[in-house]
Amino acid sequence: MTYSNNFGKPDHRRFPKLSAGNYLRVLLIAAVVAIICMAIFISLGKIRLSQAGVHLALSLVYSIFIALPSMLVLNWIGFRYTEKYPRLVFLYYAAALLVSTSFGVLASNLVFLIAGIIPRNAFWIEFRVNFPFSFVVALVVGLSIITYETLRFKLQATTLELRTKQVEQERAYKLLAEAQLSSLESRIHPHFLFNTLNSIAALIPSDPQRAEDTVGKLASLLRFSLSANHSGLVPLSQELKIVRDYLEIERTRFGSRLRYQIAVPDELGEVRVPPLALQSLVENAVKHVVAQRNQGATISIDGAKIDDRVVLAVSDDGPGFTLSAITPEHGLGNLIARLDLLFGGEGNLEVTHEKERTVVRLSFPA
């Protein structure tokens, strides 16, 4: 018998309504209790098996007349006093069951009196005989149901609270990750912009037309950079366009010292990648290899999909380096932090030396 959907959160302005399902449930409980009581009487030899049908009907009347008012009174007490007097509320329940049992037995005897089942002079005798047993049964059944409903509600409330906390925690983690990611990406853009502006400044005296073309590429880069700030991942085709534009801009500074080739299958164009991730690898090769050597370097950009992972590699014929020498402020350190935020342990960056070339591989789930 569920006495309130608002159990534990009483609203004294409005009495909780009971549904038809509540009443049907109480009638079912009353029938079960009547059958159990009848079985007890038969097993104790108080009632003959031939009289079981008549006594079952009488027991059912008692159960119904006790159960229905008990449900209403217990529901009202649970609604009013559960939070006010949590330590005394079971005493209130017991007192309520005493009253409702008295009413139920009196009402049942009145029905039996009207129906001629018991004589008038036996009315109070029947009450004294039936009331003690009825009260004990009502007390056991009523308090058991109340305890069950209380524990069930607390379990549901605890589960809901845990789910709410979990959702709030996940939301907080997501907001924190987005803030950290935005902060990391914001560090890339000024560095990238300043390098490009230096390239344009170097072109203006010697080749104004090429400087103008480079400004157009810069505008494209800036548009991509700004739009990338609002997305955790971008299509690889857009990232490759940015890489080509960046390399062409840098070639205005280094000329034939900067040589590059891109071998990424077209079918990978729609794969989502971290914005400016591949560009960071290329920029690292330009800054630390091409710019540092008179002969420059050849940069190769490759891509493949292996099982359910995307692998992008940038290689050069420079002296090489190790990730242990990378600091968080470095461009690759920034990239490692972004991979961790976007993919957790599924995003990897590694440096290897193969056939006299330094290979930086970026891999993450497709």
List the helices and strands and how they pair.
Blueprint: H1 20-43, H2 52-81, H3 89-114, H4 123-203, H5 208-228, E1 234-235, H6 236-254, E2 258-263, E3 272-273, H7 277-290, E4 297-306, E5 309-316, H8 331-343, E6 348-354, E7 357-365
Parallel strand pairs: 2-4
Antiparallel strand pairs: 1-3, 4-5, 5-7, 6-7
Helix pairs in contact: 1-2, 2-3, 2-4, 3-4, 4-5, 4-6, 4-8, 5-6, 6-7
Alpha carbon gyration radius: 41 Å
State the secondary-structure class: alpha+beta
The total count of helices amounts to 8
CATH architecture title of the largest domain:
2-Layer Sandwich
The global form is rod-shaped
Any idea how many domains?
Answer: 2
Query: End-to-end span in angstroms?
Result: 53 Å
Mean pLDDT rating: 78
